[in-house]
Amino acid sequence: MIDLRLLEKDFPAVSAQLSLRGVPRDxxxxxxxxxxxxxxxxxxxxxxxxxxxxASKAIGQLMAAKQLVEADTKKQEVKDKKEALLHLExxxxxxxxxxxQQHLELPNLPAPEAPRGTSExxxxxxxxxxxxxxxxxxxxxxxxxxxxxxGLLDLPRAAxxxxxxxxxxxxxxxKLIRALVHLGLSLNSERYTELIPPHFVRTETLTxxxxxxxxxxxxxxxxxxxxxxxxTAEVPLTSYYRDEILEFxxxxxxxxxxxxxxRREAGSAGKDTRGLQRLHEFHKxxxxxxxxxxxxxxEHQAMLGDVERMLQVLGLPYRVLDLCTGDLxxxxxxxxxxxxxxxxxxxxxxxxxxxxxxxxxxxxxxxRYRDSQGKPQFAHTLNGSGLATPRIWAALIEQGQQPDGTIxxxxxxxxxMGTNRMGGDESCRRF
RNA sequence: GGAGAGGUGGCCGAGUGGUCUAAGGCGCAGCACUGGAAAUGCUGUGUAGGGCAACUUACCGAGGGUUCGAAUCCCUCCCUCUCCGCCA
Length: 431
Description:
This protein has 2 domains: 4-105, Helix Hairpins (Orthogonal Bundle), CATH 1.10.287.40; 120-429, Bira Bifunctional Protein, Domain 2 (BirA Bifunctional Protein, domain 2), CATH 3.30.930. The chain is built from 13 helices and 18 strands. The chain has helices spanning 4-9, 11-19, 25-64, 68-105, 143-150, 155-161, 172-188, 203-209, 234-238, 296-313, 360-365, 389-400, 411-417; strands at 124-129, 153-154, 168-169, 193-195, 200-201, 221-222, 227-229, 245-246, 253-262, 281-291, 318-322, 334-342, 347-356, 368-370, 376-378, 380-388, 407-408, 421-422. The strands form 5 sheets. The protein has an 8-stranded mixed β-sheet with strand order 1-11-12-13-16-10-9-4. A 3-stranded antiparallel β-sheet has the order 5-7-6. Strands 8-14-15 form a 3-stranded mixed β-sheet, with no helix packed on it.
């Protein structure tokens, strides 16, 4: 959530920033009107309550003094005031509900450094690492073909048991997922505390990160228990400190978590879904930090470096995009996307988003820290995919492919995989 | 799933309808005492909203209700613990 006081105090600036993300000005004007109305009604309500409180105390004293007639008169007075109070509380509740809903649906303010723009066309490529188009003059086969040849995936049987956009990983293909998860955690274990989160969360938890209320149809919901399957470990991790106040010198708090991620991908059926490009269920290592505002810029860059290092040791060509204001996720103030080049599909695949959420998520989740004066302030959150395995998996298969169809693995994975290449053994073929 | 007990400030803990604006203790901070410290004494010590000063309102797991008045009584839910059952 954004700061509503800031909206009132500096309306032109805030509405200009939000217009960069397509929030119309008159919507914000209406909200400010509601806030004004609330302030007046809260004042009236508190006056009524103050009267009732003191009168009730007086009644107690009258009754103790056995002045029952006076007490009864006073009681009737309070009863009338109480009726007015109940009515006022009722309208106020409706008003606050309205404000709350509108507030929840407002996106975050983009960081001033974020490039301006309206769509992904306007994203800025900051740098490209290890990519040379001259390497890709001969045809590369897509990962689903190679996976089929060596039995690394079983998409048809996953479709049978579960449905489209799910997969069985098989043999060395399954082991490669484990290797990637292991790598993502072990490369970062000195700087981040490992957590394994619950994979189902309450509605409040999914609201804190910003998926609810706007994006309910993107998440799997279990009505019998009113729980949601997590779309990313960011969700339980961001609520880890919900309703808590952290000490000044406890910051930053850095966590990493392996989890399975579940996404309904409503509206994207059939779009770039061949092979592992888009799955309903995948495995991911997530990095997350709670920081003080003044730490955020440096920690954001450090996290970006942590993610880039993983791509570098895997030897994957990648590029870093600075997302423009129009392409930022709802909760983010600034986002760097990392894309690896997958020559088989001939596309850059997004494998990580490293975002700064300013205090947007911590307001929703009420995560605070004590500043140097000891006053509670909202913390900032940062998070980034440490490794989203399916697309990394796909890129490794496509990048490593040899003329004979076998797949050379980057050296960092040799020890874990127990081999330097995948495929080549007809016995591993699927049947 | 069944039966029972419980949830009060940073922590422990008293409080079963009316100065609860929540006792007391621990912790923490300041001051005094001291050569310095310990011990001791005094003072202070939550969060949020409104005025931004005095003041005022809300918060005793959450939400609703009863009442002139609720930490206290009633209802629903959440969580913790104990025992039983089931189970990887």
